[in-house]
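Pilot study result, target chain (159 residues):
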Amino acid sequence: MENLENIKKSLYEQLLSDLSLTTRLIIYVGLAFFLLSLLLTALFTSGEDIQGYWILVLGWIGLVIFQFSWFANPLNLLALLIVSQRPVIALLLSTVAFLLASQTFVFVEIPTGTSSGKIHIKELGLGFYIWYLAQGLFLLGVLVEVFTHKKARASLASS
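Predicted structure:
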């Protein structure tokens, strides 16, 4: 059990301890919204309503129908993992993630793979909007860190 605590502490120190307090706060709020979005309805459809956790599990399949929104999740995870070491690359990843997440707004139907055809999306649910807000908060957190990093470097250079 002690080893697990050391691993968790070490992981925190490597990933988040170098970030500014503002960045960490924004990222924590984004993570809370992300987790909340998994419990809520993300899509109201002509069939069954779809929960956020279901999309997290199966969203990668959207690749076959050119729906790439789900890929915002791993891109933002990667951005958050490297933001303290490579803030500019993290900004690029998080920006692409946010743009991919925006593709959901034009997603109107889900193929079923059966003869019945497609399930039509009637409306985006609260789960989607909270997930999208989380994506925006991740981007904001990375932006804050990038500008904080640049200011820190500039102040060190002028000293």
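One observation from the pilot: The helical segments are 2-15, 21-39, 52-58, 72-82, 87-102, 126-158. A full batch analysis is planned for the follow-on phase.
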